[in-house]
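Below is a typical protein record.
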Amino acid sequence: MRVAIAGAGAVGRSIAGELLENGHEVLLVDKAPTAISVERVPQAEWLLADACEITSLDEAALQRCNVVIAATGDDKVNLVVSLLAKTEYGVPRVVARVNNPKNEWLFNESWGVDVAVSTPRLMSALVEEAVSVGDLVRLLRFSHGDANLVELTLPEESALAGTRVGEVEWPEDTSLVTIIRGTRVLTPSPEDSLEAGDELLFVAAQAREEQLEDLLSVRRADAPS
C-alpha cells in the first residue's frame, strides 16, 4: 500500500516509521527544509514541497496513493490537503489530524476527510477509559455514516454479564467488533459469553450511543442500587 503523509514533523515521522515496519510504501511531504530529515526515516521517500499546492501533489503522484494522511500541526493545512486528495486525486482513504478540538466539526466528508483523529480528544478518552467502568468512551470518529469507535468496560452488575453475544438485542447501527479480556483480544462470535470486566469495542452511530450505554450498564433486578 502506498501512503503519502503531509507533515514530516514528529507525528508524521512516527506514523511513517510504523507503516514502513508493516511493509508499506511511504512518502513524506513537507515545505520546511528543516523538516526534511532523511536520516531519521531513511526507508521513506521524501519531498520538499507545499502539500497545499496542486503542482506539489502532482509531483507526489497522489493519484497512486491508497491513503493520504494530513498530519501537520496546522488544521487549515490538513483540511486543504484532505480536500485536494479526495476531490482532485480520488484518494480512497484520507485521514486527518485535528490539532484544535474546536475545529473538529470541520473534519468531515465535505472536506474529504474519511477519519479524523483528534489528539487532545484521544488522550482524554484514554484517560476516561482507564478510570471508567460502565461509561461509554468515544475513541475515534468516522466521517462516513456519522459513526464512532466507542469503548465500554462491562460492569459486574450489568445484566448482560454471562449472556451470549448472539442473544443480545443490540441497538440498530451498532456492531461489536472486539472483546478485550485481560491480555486476550477476541473476535466476538454469537457463542461467546460476555464477562464482567470485558472491554467492549463497538462501531456505533452517534445517535445510538446512549441506547448502547443503557443496555450495557443496566443493573440486574436483584442487584443492590
